[in-house]
Design a protein that fits this description.
Phosphorylase Kinase, domain 1; Transferase(Phosphotransferase), domain 1; alpha+beta; 7 helices; 236 residues; 2 domains
């Protein structure tokens, strides 16, 4: 078993931090979110954290939920995401601070977990998209996106791309909005790459498909104004 954390937490780190029941028994588990991976919001002595256990996706998940083939510590998912988040923090980009990672090898396989800082936010970009107002649709009283948000999102993505930060799954669920701030989360399978128009354009196209899927509207038609403002922010 290998645990990675910052120097200031080395004397306090406890393997139980990576177990959901540990936080439940102390009444410190604040919420849960299940998707491809399962994440829990927890209240630690150092503030709110997010604990994520890595689960497999696709066909492999039916045979093996959370075990990955071992090819070395530095190739493990949690190790790589921890290191990437640490690099992003050093660049001053808006993302969660990595707290600790656990990689547990069992023979030819391993399981892994990651603890990150919890980002305070009003809504995800995905939630905001669902509040968009169109003609002949009933009003929505949730927090809503304004055009400034679209610009800020584009500008934030550009900052990442300028620094060569590749996000493998840039979709509206992985963008958090808190007033005038934009944060990007979930850097599993992310990497630092030489800036290149090909992968950067693919990143933007993936986000466009996500917006259209959630809104059931076209970024080239009904959402053309919002999409163009996002692109303006990106190219600014």
């Amino acid at each position: 078993m290998s645990i990675i954390t910052s120097p200031e937490l080395k004397s306090d780190i406890d393997p139980q931090w990576f177990e959901q029941d540990y936080w439940v028994n102390q009444g410190r588990l604040l919420g849960a979110n299940s998707g491809r991976g399962s994440t829990w919001v927890i209240k630690s002595e150092w503030g709110k954290w997010v604990l994520r256990h890595y689960f497999r996706g696709g066909l492999y998940a039916k045979l093996n939920r959370d075990r990955y083939f071992w090819t070395g510590l530095k190739n493990s998912r949690a190790y790589q995401e921890y290191q990437l988040l640490d690099e992003i923090q050093q660049l001053g980009l808006p993302s969660p601070k990595p707290i600790a990672a656990l990689i547990a090898q069992h023979g030819l396989f391993y399981r892994n977990d990651l603890i990150m800082e919890h980002i305070q936010h009003q809504m995800t970009f995905a939630q905001g998209i669902k509040t968009l107002q169109f003609k002949n649709e009933p009003p929505c009283h949730m927090n809503q996106l304004d055009l400034k948000n679209w610009y800020q999102i584009g500008h934030t993505i550009a900052q990442y791309h300028h620094n060569g930060i590749y996000h493998s799954d840039l979709n509206a669920h992985n963008i958090l909005l808190n007033h005038d701030q934009v944060f990007i989360i979930d850097f599993d399978k992310g990497a630092i790459k030489p800036p290149n128009k090909h992968w950067q354009t693919n990143n933007i196209s993936r986000l466009k498909r996500s917006i259209e899927k959630l809104s059931q509207k076209s970024c080239d038609d009904q959402l053309s104004e919002q999409w163009q403002i996002l692109l303006d922010g990106y190219h600014a």
